Amino acid sequence: MSDYIFTVIEFAGADFVNFPAAHARLLSVVAARVESGEHGGVFNLDDTVHLDGDSLQLITPFASGGRLEWEAPEGEWLIIASYLLPSGEVPMGAAQKPQGFVVDHLRKPQVIGHYEYAYGERTGLPRHYGAGLRGFFNDSLEFRLPRMAVEDILSEFRKRRGYDLEPYLPAVYVEGVDNVYFREILGVHAAPDFQVTSLDERIRHDYQQTLSDLVIERFVETSADWAHARGLLSRGQSYGMDIDLLRALGANSIPETEQLWAGGANVGLKFASSAAILYGRPLVSAESFVWINRDYQPTARRLKAAADKLLLAGVNHIVYHGTPYPWHGSGEGDYGEEGWQPFSGPENPAHFSGLYGPANTALWPDIPELNDYIARSQYLLRHGAPSADVLVYYPFLGFHGPNRDLGTGEVLVTGSLGDADPAAVALEAPELSAGKAQVERFVSLPPKQVDPRVDWVERVQPLLADLERRGVSWAWLNDHALQSGKLRAGELTASGGRYGAILLPEIQAMPPATLQALREQLDQGIEVVFAGKLPDRQHGFHEAAAGDLAVQRGVARLRSAGAAHFALDDVQLLAHLTDASAGTLRYSAPSDIHRHRRLLADGAQIHFFANQSPDAAELSLSAPPDATAWWLDARTGRAWAADTGSGPVSLPLAGFDSRFLITGVPLPDALRDEGPPRLDALTAQSRQLTGWDFDAAEYRAVLDALPDWRDIRTLKYARGPGVYRHIVDVEDTDRPARYILDLGLVQGSAVVSVNGETVGRASLPPFRLDISDAVRPGANTIEVAVTPPLRNYFVGRALAGDPLYSHMAGYEDQLVAAGLMGPVMLSVSGAR
Asked: CB–CB of 256/390 below 8 Å?
């Protein structure tokens, strides 16, 4: 639909566009007087032509057979012809050659036809529906178009937005709006091709809202309907374009997010779970454990922390990213010793973390314990109904949140762990950096400006982080859910969950119909809270002045009816939201231990607590309302009664440790355990183990302090394992005792042996093992064998000239922490 096509780009072997001009069909012809400006060619994206809006004329009837016969009035006139044509877009990275074409997401018959062809009778798959074939998955919406459209775009726009788009059609042309590489990856933000009115941004919003409606109805909902009719599930990452994210994600059987999107920040992760609670989807999926430029970095500790972050965000269906089939190629030397890795290699621009298979010898032995932990946690978090103390109104189409930590203390943004990683890690592949440099060199761009969505998220994010530190859960809320009855008197009607308050932070524009829905919420006893700027206008162009006035009056009526209003940084805002929350277990003080909650029948609840800090933390909770409360350690499967008889409940957790608290349900006898020894009791009977005999590669030493391998030249690129040995004397006593070995911190994978007997692995926080059964009176030899992540070893291979690892040389200054860091403590408790 653009009057020009920017350029054809070849990036990472991907064929971006093949616009078949011969199939172009004329949609509209508009003429207008030019007030100023001219287009400067395909490499100028800052050449807006200003049109006289009052002079706009539709001259489509004068065009026929490739000819235009129209008598122009006096003056300088510009004729703008808009064409519809197939994009010619092909799937990116498809295995088959030649590649097929991307399905037309805006035409329902074509979408259905695609599923019938891919999964229908011709394939023989129907006999496997709902059994071997569970469903299908649609990855994120990553279109590469100048502007998206469909044959009936004008009639659909008129029906949905209430006015005729055709005279204003030039206003919607902004190069790359529907091109994920321009906007999201290369960061190209072009100026509009034309300025038609002073309210063009509203016209563009109306156009994007129409595209959002059509993509959801004709693709996402159609996909789910086709699947459901056949006993299948439709799982989807329905984001990547400017769309109503919550409605789109909620239209899938299983809404899915990913830790690669938005840097894995909470503000991004929560869109899928928010969609699930609003639209009644019991499973929330995540493409997990993937971050850019972190090849071979992950340890079990990092994955445990990442899993907890997902669980806290409402994800209960974790899907690993990166488990390739083992393949070493057709000839000697095709790949490195780990075999084919689709996300890392000399010719691979996508340097993603994630080789979660047997070839990752430094991590694979820890995966079973990690998977047991994830399985137990997901099982619990699939019970009951969701809970959100505060619903946070999200006012935009699409999401352009921050890909970095803004000082909120949030861990694992872009996968970073401060005590394991170098100070600076490139957040994009070198090819992307080079692409951006080329764009800036050859293309004229408007002055850089912060996307309003990014600015909004960065202003709101500290408040959301403060809520999490107070144990107050939150979820996103959209216009569609508010206006379509998804909320009623504290009940999430589709999922059966509960909510306590609605927060509208720094909102500038919203539909008048949403304000009416908020008034109904207020009348039902729900707290409605404005923070910061109050909205004073609508988004849309149609009857703009009347709509703006309706918004202003609607806000005033809400305020007079009792809606609260605070400054965004007002400390009373936090107190007000905490008091309005639906929870019964309150934090006595802010903590790095965050919480996610599920509601069971008859008031029973499941609380998941996870320390989102590498340091130990302790939480004091108001006592549960009944005496049936019990703890569950999902890592070990052990459960024990909670001590609720003496006031507040204390929960101490090591760095990145976690715990479940279940209330209102009796502790099953099959799970009952005496529980772990109290940490304060262990501390009183603990001794630090120093003076370790260490042996790794060609390095041998007696260590009083436990160093990071990166600081020792011989160990810098060592593969390991490195073995730490210590002899400890244990008194002969008649009283049975439990001996707990606490390794403090392990950067890598650890196996513990006592007196030559393997006791177990200690690669997951809190790095503690009960070694009682292996301890004997007198001298005991404790051995800890640590294998570091493969990152450092492969960098060493690259620097030694191995061509199969040449791509790892770029990480010479981005090695990861390795080794047993300690402090190592041996603690004794009373009865075993």
From this structure: no
Q: Is the pLDDT of residue 723 over 70?
A: yes
Residue with tokens 């009977």: 685
CA–CA distance, 817 with 314 (Å, rounded to integer): 30
**Predicted local confidence at residue 585, as pLDDT:** 84
Q: Which residues pair with 727 in a beta bridge?
A: 781
Helices (H), 541-594: 544-561, 571-580
Type and span of the H or E element at 64: strand 63-64
Name the helix (H) or strand (E) containing 378.
Answer: helix 367-380
Residue 20 confidence (pLDDT) = 78
CA distance 272 to 252: 10
Q: Return the structure tokens found at 127.
A: 């006999």
Q: What separation in angstroms does the CA of 84 have from each of 2, 81, 154?
A: 9, 10, 12
In this structure, the number of other CB atoms found within 10 A of the CB of residue 103 comes to: 19
Q: How would residue 10 be classed by pLDDT, with cut points 50, 70 and 90?
A: very low
Cα(811)–Cα(421) distance, integer angstroms:
11
Indicate the pLDDT class of residue 92, thresholds 50, 70 and 90: confident
Q: What pLDDT is stored for residue 745 in this prediction?
A: 97
CB 504 within 8 A of CB 522: no
Q: Does the pLDDT at position 826 exceed 80? A: yes
pTM: 0.94
Average pLDDT over residues 656-682: 80
Which residues, listed in sequence order, are joined to residue 30 by a DSSP beta bridge? 58, 80
What DSSP designation does 564 have? E
- The CA distance from 282 to 385, in Å, is 8
Output the six-digit token pair for 340: 């084919």
Q: For 254-269, how does the pLDDT look when each residue is reduced to its tens digit (9 = 90+)?
A: 999 999 998 899 999 9
Query: In this structure, how many other beta carbons lie within 10 angstroms of the beta carbon of residue 142?
Result: 18
Q: DSSP character for 110?
A: H
For residue 51, the cross-strand partners are: 34
Q: How many residues does the chain have?
A: 832
Nearby residues of 199 by Cβ (< 8 Å), 6 or more positions away: 541, 544
CB neighbours (10 Å) of residue 500? 22
The pLDDT of residue 13: 45
Among the listed residues 379, 360, 350, the one whose alpha carbon sits nearest the alpha carbon of residue 282: 379
Pairing of strands 638-641, 630-633: antiparallel
Tokens for 79, please give them: 């004729």
Cα(816)–Cα(808) distance, integer angstroms: 13
Q: Which two tokens stand for residue 107?
A: 């035409």
Question: Does residue 1 surpass a pLDDT of 50?
Answer: no
- 109's CB contacts (< 8 A; 6+ apart) are none
Is there a contact between 716 and 794 (Cβ–Cβ < 8 Å)? Answer: no
Residue 137 φ/ψ, nearest 5 degrees: -125, 135
Per-residue DSSP letter, 262: G
Q: What is the pLDDT of residues 460-510, one digit of tens each?
A: 999 999 999 999 999 999 999 999 999 999 999 999 999 999 999 999 999
CA distances from 79 to 1, 33, 34, 53, 76 (A): 14, 9, 10, 13, 10
Q: How far apart are CA 714 and CA 93, in angstroms?
A: 40
Helix residue ranges per DSSP H, 41-197: 108-119, 153-161, 180
Please, which pLDDT band fits residue 818 given cuts at 50, 70 and 90? Answer: very high
Predicted pLDDT of residue 11: 43
